[in-house]
Specification:
The complex is a heterodimer. Chain A contains 13 helices and 10 strands. By secondary structure, chain A is α+β, with helices and mostly antiparallel strands. In chain A, the strands form 4 sheets. Chain A has a 3-stranded antiparallel β-sheet with strand order 3-5-4. Chain B is mainly alpha-helical. In chain B, strand 12 and strand 13 form a beta hairpin. In chain B, the strands form 5 sheets. Chain B has a 3-stranded antiparallel β-sheet with strand order 1-3-2. Chain B is built from 23 helices and 13 strands. The chains are: A alpha+beta, B mainly alpha. The complex binds iron/sulfur cluster (SF4).
Chain lengths: ~290, ~500
């Protein structure tokens, strides 16, 4: 391994740039491949810049905090760059940039394009509004409020993924409840044993290995809330967090939903006369033929 | 009253009493309370027919009358609820049979069929059906007496003392369930047809007290609900709690008066069927009390604690579940999730839905607007200036009006009943020829059987119905059964929804 710190210090000490030979003499015991890897990394993250001087390669140190003084940017670009930089990893909407920079739309678009091609900034689609793009510095990881967190893949909500997780969470709670009941010792004991924390469920889901992305406990908490919303579980406050447990509903299917008319999509148009009527209704016919 | 109910009761009247009574019923439904002459004019029926129809309707408690401003004329009005109740009769009978056995069921059945009867009528009719020996009459009497004591049967109101052209029917609360002396000696004579029943000189008549049946149904559905949510032990606990409630609470109170736990514990101990409830009694009580539904609450610590059951709240929660079921079947589980989110939060901004319910925004939008369209959700707009004198921002919030949803669902139930009944009569109508033939063949078979026909002759008669016809008849039969069951089940839903409204 190369002492990266040493490498940086070396470059800092020579503002005109360092050559491969300089490096070798400063860190003689490093392997060539390791040095190359370190340099590549610095080039990538913008700490080094590459120059050619008389056919010789020179690396120049560049203060990342001053990347804004990017070469070749004119003053408008600098202003826009700074505004975007300020917005951090939450990004900033084009209208707000315009407002802050006082540039007109054509100008601003040009500047943004140029900064984008130079890979100083990037545009990220925000999940909160499908057509809204926000700009942020190129190497920033967008905030989860922009990407939507674990549930989004390229700004698309992964509905099936959420469904599967929701089912698995419920399964965990149900099994836990059944196990508790099997243990005996009375209903109160069984109830207390059937509670699970989000941590318990998180552990179970992680071990299942059904998720490609790493889920946090609060991600699981969101999923558990859908189980509660589906009226398949209850949650009670306990200390800092919640306890969850699967529950039954009060009713099994009531008569109305077992009929065709009770759930009929065209019931509003069904009358005595006209084409939609109970005498010839196909829904009813099919239901009557069923065994 | 709604359009749908009007159609339904018209069909019920027609099925049970024929078209003349249906006509009178329709007129009264549409124009409300009216005197005889108006009914005659409106229905274009001869006076005699209208009178006859009104008589029957009054007899069955489907029409009531009150003196007009002019004291000499009566205004007649329709008792819509009682007409709808007729679809519930089978349920009443079933309930009673389970609770008290066949004889009691027969007593109620006779009353429902005849509308009102005297004491001797009831006892004699039921005894005849059972082919009782005269010595068994006291048995039937005891059954009858206990039904009165338990308030399933009450006295028929009679004209009050004052002589008026239009009598006012009244019954004092205090005598509603009081039993007259029953002279068993004379009654036996009547049973043996030795003397006419007029000699008994009876003045008291009995009718069915529907309200009492409704209390039973209310309790039964509650017990079922708790059994489903917890287990049969909790169901039993609730049953006993309700049973003990009657001793000290008005039956339709929103909340029962406190029932001491010790009382329930005592009863449970004596019953052998629920050993678990005995062993874990205290644990069960804690579980029930701590349940988030909060339907059964502790009300005091004295003498081992006492409990109250929140009947209003129970039916509130039941109504919510019914609505959720309907949404689930009409739309899907995501729609229910949205609905329940709005329920839990009371007011929800459309944007929050996608995030909290974890549904893709497009789908969330589509579903919530569908729910809006079918009136499961409502929208409220709020306008609020962002800053002083600033631009006004408007928020839209979803919320739920449960009562109006329940009313809509009731309409849907009535429509469903109406459609089922319409379909039934239509199926009968298109197969009329075969059904008539079957009836004729049956009649002939019965006739020759009573004349001592041989097996062979009987088989010959039966063969008049061809195998394909037999198949069709079987099919019709199955369809009718299915539709009849549907009617009863939908009526159960109606009952649950009505209970919610009753407590509002
Ligand atoms: S009869 Fe058919 S069309 Fe009419 S409400 Fe029922 S299911 Fe719908």
């Amino acid at each position: 391994m190369v002492d990266e710190h040493k490498l940086i210090e070396l470059a800092k000490s020579k503002p005109d740039g360092i050559s491969n030979d300089d490096i070798k003499s400063a860190i003689p015991d490093a392997k060539i491949e390791d040095i190359a890897a370190a340099i590549n990394k610095f080039l990538k993250n913008g700490s080094f810049e590459l120059y050619q001087d008389n056919g010789k390669l020179l690396y120049k140190y560049k203060d990342p905090s001053k990347k804004s003084t990017a070469k070749g940017s004119d003053s408008e670009e600098k202003i826009v760059f700074r505004i975007i930089e300020e917005a951090g990893n939450k990004g900033i909407w084009i209208r707000d940039i315009r407002f802050k920079s006082n540039l007109n739309m054509t100008q601003l678009n040009k500047v943004l394009k140029s900064l984008e091609t130079k890979k100083y900034i990037k545009a990220v689609k925000s999940v909160s509004a499908s057509k809204k793009k926000v700009y942020m510095l190129y190497d920033l990881e967008p905030d989860s409020s922009v990407t939507g967190g674990a549930w989004y893949q390229d700004q698309d909500f992964e509905s099936e993924f959420v469904d599967v997780l929701s089912q698995q969470c419920l399964r965990f709670l149900t099994e836990k409840g059944e196990e508790a009941k099997m243990h005996g010792g009375g209903p109160l004991l069984a109830r207390n044993k059937s509670y699970a924390t989000a941590n318990d469920v998180h552990k179970f889901i992680s071990e299942l290995g059904i998720s490609k992305v790493r889920l946090s406990v609060s991600d699981i908490e969101s999923i558990l809330y859908t189980v509660v919303l589906d009226n398949n579980a209850e949650r009670i406050a306990s200390g800092e967090g919640f306890l969850y447990r699967s529950t039954n509903k009060f009713l099994s299917s009531v008569g109305l939903v077992k009929t065709t008319c009770g759930v009929c999509p065209i019931a509003n148009r069904c009358a005595d006369t006209g084409l939609i009527n109970p005498k010839i209704c196909e829904y009813l016919t099919d239901w009557l033929e069923e065994n | 009253m709604s359009f749908q109910i009007g159609k339904l009761i018209s069909l019920i009247l027609q099925e049970r009493f024929g078209i003349i009574i249906e006509k009178v019923g329709n007129f009264l439904f549409e124009y409300g309370s009216n005197p005889l002459l108006y009914i005659m004019r409106g229905t274009e029926l001869p006076l005699g027919k209208v009178k006859e129809a009104l008589c029957i309707l009054i007899k069955y408690g489907l029409v009531t009358f009150k003196p007009n401003n002019n004291e000499n004329i009566a205004n007649y009005s329709l008792c819509i609820d009682n007409i709808l109740l007729m679809t519930r009769y089978p349920k009443f009978l079933n309930l009673l049979k389970k609770k008290f056995g066949d004889e009691s069921e027969m007593i109620i059945e006779e009353l429902l069929q005849n509308s009102y009867l005297s004491t001797s009528d009831i006892i004699v009719k039921v005894a005849e059906r059972l082919k009782c020996d005269v010595n068994d009459l006291p048995n039937v009497r005891d059954k009858f007496v206990s039904l009165v004591v338990a308030k399933y049967i009450q006295r028929l109101p009679t004209p009050n003392e004052e002589e008026r052209p239009v009598p006012i029917l009244e019954i004092k609360e205090s005598v509603l369930f009081s039993l007259p002396k029953i002279d068993m000696k004379l009654l036996s004579q009547v049973y043996l047809k030795k003397i006419p029943k007029e000699e008994l000189g009876e003045t008291v008549f009995w009718i069915v007290n529907f309200d009492r049946f409704h209390q039973d149904m209310r309790d039964k559905y509650l017990v079922d609900a708790f059994t489903k949510k917890f287990d049969e032990n909790v169901g039993e606990f609730v049953k006993l709690l309700l049973q003990q409630m009657y001793i000290r609470t008005d039956p339709w109170a929103e909340t029962s008066n406190p029932v001491p736990l010790l009382e329930i514990k005592d009863i449970v101990r004596k019953k052998v069927i629920y050993p678990n409830l005995v062993t874990f009694f205290d644990q069960y009580v804690t579980v029930i009390e701590q349940d988030p539904s909060q339907i059964i609450r502790k009300s005091g610590e004295a003498s081992g604690g006492s409990f109250q059951i929140q009947l209003k709240e129970a039916y509130n929660q039941i109504a919510w579940e019914i609505v959720e079921q309907v949404i689930l079947e009409k739309f899907d589980s995501k729609a229910v999730r949205i609905f329940r989110l709005v329920k839990l939060k009371k007011f929800v901004e459309p944007d929050q839905i996608q995030q909290l319910a974890m549904i893709p925004s497009k789908e969330a939008k589509k579903l919530s607007y569908q729910l809006l369209e079918e009136n499961f959700l409502k929208l409220q707009e709020l306008k609020r200036p962002l800053a002083n004198n600033g631009p006004i921002k408007s928020f839209t919030l979803f919320y739920i009006d449960l009562e109006s949803i329940v009313r809509n669902l009731l309409e849907l139930c009535y429509k469903t009943l109406y459609n089922a009944m319409t379909r039934k009569s239509h199926e009968k109508f298109i197969n009329k020829r075969i059904i008539d033939k079957k009836q004729r063949v049956d009649a002939i078979a019965m006739g020759i059987q009573s004349q001592g026909a041989t097996e062979e002759q009987l088989a010959d008669i039966e063969d008049m119905i061809t195998p394909p016809e037999r198949e069709i008849l079987g099919k019709i039969d199955r369809k009718m059964k299915k539709l009849n069951i549907e009617e009863l089940e939908v009526d159960a839903t109606i009952f649950l929804l009505q209970m919610y409204l009753k407590y509002q």
